[in-house]
């Protein structure tokens, strides 16, 4: 049975989950500060074993981002990603200011667009929105 724990994601678990999907290595300091600056984290457990996670970063009032949505490869396709993203979206809805709109954004890995479309994310570019862009410094 999958359970979610909120705001308990530790550095070792964070780094291990990132490594499980072959993401870029982070220094211990980067990982520590990333978690410290997260607005919200959720970790999915299969028993005592962490099998997925997601973070919300942003300002909490104008724009938030879903960051580091990870499910261990051997657990992908089992609904864990859906459970994690639904909780992340719920958090943003619960914490946004009344009578306001907040942008919830993400950068998805190539080939994962259909997963996010199921949760009403809109791929860019559109006729009104330009492409997402990035710069590594």
Summarize the structure.
This protein has helices spanning 11-20, 28-36, 80-95, 113-117; strands spanning 2-6, 40-46, 49-58, 63-71, 103-106. It is an alpha+beta fold and 137 residues long.
Topology, element by element:
Elements: E1 2-6, H1 11-20, H2 28-36, E2 40-46, E3 49-58, E4 63-71, H3 80-95, E5 103-106, H4 113-117
Sketch the topology as an H/E string, one letter per element: EHHEEEHEH
Q: How far apart, in Å, are the first and last alpha carbons?
A: 41 Å
Globally, the shape reads globular
Using only CA atoms, what is the Rg? Answer: 15 Å
By DSSP, the count of extended strands is 5
Strand order of the largest sheet: 1-2-3-4-5
Computed structural class:
alpha+beta
Regions with little confidence, pLDDT below 50 for 5+ residues: none
What fraction of the residues are assigned to beta strands by DSSP? 25-35%
SS summary, helix count: 4
Largest sheet descriptor: 5 strands, mixed
- The helix fraction, in percent, is 25-40%
pLDDT averaged over residues:
96
Overview of this structure, please?
The chain has 137 residues and is α+β, with helices and mostly antiparallel strands. It has 4 helices and 5 strands. It has helices spanning 11-20, 28-36, 80-95, 113-117; strands spanning 2-6, 40-46, 49-58, 63-71, 103-106. The longest helix is centred in the middle third of the chain and has 16 residues, at 80-95.
